[in-house]
Amino acid sequence: DYSFEFEAVLSAFEHFDELDFVGGLIRVNGEVIAYTLGEPQMSGHCFVSHFEKAPADVIGAYAIINQEFTKNCLMEYEYVNREEDLGIEGLRKAKQSYHPEIWLEKCTAVYND
After folding, report:
1. Domain boundaries, position 45
2. Among candidates 32, 68, 70, 25, which has minimal Cα distance to 49?
3. Is residue 107 situated within a structural domain?
């Protein structure tokens, strides 16, 4: 549900410093066209990108924010976890195009009383 996602992004920005998030953005003519934010994992070897957003009509914006943020801000990390693809075919294809070294299968745990 996009309303939950919006609330999560808003909360992430509101608590950016408290959460020790790191982020980047791209502007064109002063207008933000893409942003990303996430946090280092406790192991220190992996950075988790929690949010990466860009307008769908700005071709290449996702690729550019991902490439530039990784190249300029994440050199110290061995891995970048781009999280799940939500079963969205286009997102899955984009994430596979980065040739991930590790691909984890998502599972759901259910507690039965």
Report:
1. 2-96
2. 70
3. no
